[in-house]
């Protein structure tokens, strides 16, 4: 966790005690305060007592399932702005049902520890900034898409919407560095597959440059590649596995744009 930020509270809603302990082990390194509830109704009861900064919600639970609990959280003006991440092994239409219930994000069990930690930190960062700065109107972000694949570059732009952002492209590390210096993008969508250089080297350089450390990086990776990025966890704001699917690409880039927009409103030090 950023040394300059205070610990935040995360409510874990999971009826399986073993899985709750596993989730706790995944989240403990982030340094936040962890609370727990065994089902949806217990989660709502806890929310009446004190408000967490984020909820991680299973959906298959007794008493009240996660879909209904999520709907109740989002329907209450006191809790509607609390981000809810649904974490479930339920397949079929679970993702669509989660978003329809108002969830802010969705992960399938068993979740990659790196991806879970990155998503949690990004949602907490956005919530922290939104509370401090208010809710600004959306603006068109500048997005740099760095990928050795013309298909991936085209998909990112088409999935998010070419009219929703100002897009720049790079095929390799050297071109990406030049584009960053020339255009100062708000968001970097970085494919692990580049025509030259290394995506990890580029991320390390960005993270070490004081004027670039706030730029959200969305990593596009192949199956099995994500865990190779554990040492760069703090530099990543999100990750998305290829092949890309339009609704998820759109959601992930929009989250990065929201984070970038809020960070720009921070008063200069």
The major β-sheet equals: 5 strands, parallel
Low-pLDDT sequence parts = none
How many domains, as an integer? 2
Q: How large is the count of helical segments?
A: 9
Any idea what the radius of gyration is?
A: 18 Å
For this structure, the CATH topology of the largest domain is: Rossmann fold
Structural class: alpha/beta
CATH superfamily of the largest domain: Response regulator
State the shape: globular
Distance between the termini: 20 Å
Can you describe this structure in just a few lines?
By secondary structure, the protein is α/β, with parallel strands linked by helices.
List the helices and strands and how they pair.
Blueprint: E1 9-13, H1 17-27, E2 33-37, H2 40-49, E3 54-57, H3 66-75, E4 84-88, H4 94-100, E5 105-108, H5 113-133, E6 142-146, H6 150-160, E7 166-170, H7 173-183, E8 187-191, H8 199-208, E9 217-221, E10 238-241, H9 246-264
Parallel strand pairs: 1-2, 1-3, 3-4, 4-5, 6-7, 6-8, 8-9, 9-10
Polypeptide structure, described:
The structure is a single chain. This protein is α/β, with parallel strands linked by helices. It has two domains: 9-111, Rossmann fold, CATH 3.40.50.2300; 142-264, Rossmann fold (3-Layer(aba) Sandwich), CATH 3.40.50.2300. The protein is built from nine helices and ten strands. It has helices at 17-27, 40-49, 66-75, 94-100, 113-133, 150-160, 173-183, 199-208, 246-264; strands spanning 9-13, 33-37, 54-57, 84-88, 105-108, 142-146, 166-170, 187-191, 217-221, 238-241. The strands form two sheets. It has a five-stranded parallel sheet with strand order 2-1-3-4-5, with helices on both faces. Strands 7-6-8-9-10 form a five-stranded parallel sheet, sandwiched between helices. Strand 8, helix 8 (199-208) and strand 9 form a beta-alpha-beta unit. Helix 2 packs parallel to helix 3 (66-75) and helix 5 (113-133) crosses helix 9. It is globular, with a radius of gyration of 18 Å. The model has no long low-confidence stretch (mean pLDDT 93).
């Amino acid at each position: 966790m950023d040394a300059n930020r205070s610990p935040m509270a995360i409510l874990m809603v999971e009826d399986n005690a073993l899985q709750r302990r596993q989730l706790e082990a995944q989240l403990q390194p982030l340094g936040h305060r962890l609370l727990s509830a065994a089902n949806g109704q217990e989660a709502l009861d806890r929310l009446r007592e004190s408000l967490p900064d984020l909820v991680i919600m299973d959906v298959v639970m007794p008493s009240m399932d996660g879909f209904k609990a999520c709907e109740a959280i989002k329907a209450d003006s006191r809790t509607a702005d609390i981000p809810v991440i649904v974490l479930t092994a339920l397949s079929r239409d679970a993702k669509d049902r989660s978003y329809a219930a108002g969830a802010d994000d969705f992960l399938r069990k068993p979740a990659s520890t790196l991806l879970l930690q990155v998503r949690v930190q990004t949602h907490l960062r956005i919530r922290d900034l939104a509370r401090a700065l208010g809710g600004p109107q959306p603006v068109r972000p500048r997005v740099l898409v760095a990928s050795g694949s013309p298909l991936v570059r085209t998909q990112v732009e088409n999935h998010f919407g070419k009219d929703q952002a100002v897009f720049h492209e790079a095929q390799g590390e050297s071109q990406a560095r030049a584009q960053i210096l020339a255009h100062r993008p708000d968001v970097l969508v970085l494919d692990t597959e580049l025509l030259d250089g290394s995506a990890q080297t580029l991320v390390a350089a960005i993270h070490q440059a004081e004027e670039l450390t706030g730029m959200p990086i969305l990593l596009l990776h192949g199956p099995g590649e994500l865990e190779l990025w554990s040492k760069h966890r703090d530099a990543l704001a999100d990750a998305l596995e290829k092949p890309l699917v339009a609704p998820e690409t759109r959601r992930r880039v929009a989250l990065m744009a929201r984070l970038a927009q809020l960070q720009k409103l921070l008063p200069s030090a």
